[in-house]
UniProtKB/TrEMBL annotation:
UniProt name for this protein: PTS system, N-acetylgalactosamine-specific IIC component
GO cellular component: plasma membrane
InterPro entries found in the cross-reference section: GatZ_KbaZ_carbometab, PTS_IIC_GalNAc_AgaW-like, PTS_IIC_man
Family matches, as PANTHER family: N-ACETYLGALACTOSAMINE PERMEASE II COMPONENT-RELATED, N-ACETYLGALACTOSAMINE PERMEASE IIC COMPONENT 1
EC assignment: 2.7.1.69
Length: 240
């Protein structure tokens, strides 16, 4: 599948908006479960977009920034990974193995960009001393523009110039390597859940979690059905 200039530009605009939302709006548009379907709509394959976005959401579910420790960039990882899955026809778990390296590289660029922006803070301090609110506003808007432009370029360039080569690369790769990417991609959601459980899991929940997991596996109930059942049980109980 070839990606047109208009499609690549639209994906760049999505990355621009999602990048601003991640640090300022926080409407959670930047999450994979939202970005994946948006990429699918732009590229004409909503089904693959939903599947890949959901898979990547499992990867990033337990990854949260803590002070200076930043996880791989979720926005570019999702957009590039979903576009890769759609253009090459690979499974979503294989796309995860491609998305994470892109996400790591872009996060390094984001960290460098923030380091450069920190040099402007002394100037903002002087503006604050002089009550120059207009100047502080201009600095903030310019910083937002620089951040959004960086996201736009990181999404537009690899998708537009690299999409036509992606299918060729996949065709020449040995099947063993592709299977390895699929295995690595399948492990990543488990790692995401493990990180999340490490933060949230309490000892008093173990007697509930393990028997519940065994019963769910034996009954072959899907995740959606299990969640609906739990929600129904919770609705039947009176509020505390």
């Amino acid at each position: 599948m070839e990606i047109s200039l208009l499609q690549a530009f639209a994906l760049g605009i999505i990355a621009f908006i999602a990048g601003l939302d991640m640090f300022n709006g926080l409407t959670h548009m930047h999450r994979p479960v939202v970005l994946g379907p948006l990429v699918g709509l732009v590229l004409g394959d909503l089904h693959t977009g939903i599947l890949t976005g959901g898979t990547l959401e499992l990867v990033w579910m337990g990854l949260a920034p803590l002070a200076g420790a930043q996880p791989p960039n979720v926005i570019i990882g999702t957009i590039v990974g979903t576009a890769f899955a759609i253009t090459t026809g690979v499974k979503p778990d294989v796309a995860v193995g491609v998305a994470v390296p892109f996400a790591v590289a872009v996060q390094m660029g984001i960290t460098f960009l923030f380091s450069v922006m920190s040099g402007v803070m002394s100037r903002c301090d002087r503006m604050a001393e002089n009550a120059d609110t207009r100047g502080i506003e201009r600095v903030n808007y310019l910083a937002l523009l620089a951040l959004g432009t960086f996201y736009f370029l990181c999404a537009f360039l690899p998708i537009y110039f690299g999409a036509e080569h992606a299918k060729t690369i996949i065709d020449v790769l040995p099947q063993r390597l592709i299977d390895g990417l699929g295995v690595a991609g399948g492990i990543m959601p488990a790692i995401g859940f493990a990180v999340l459980l490490k933060i949230m899991m309490k000892k008093r929940l173990h007697p509930l979690l393990h028997p519940g997991l065994c019963c769910r596996s034996l009954a072959q109930v899907t995740g959606a059905g299990y969640c609906c059942r739990c929600a129904g049980d919770g609705a039947d109980r009176p509020a505390a």
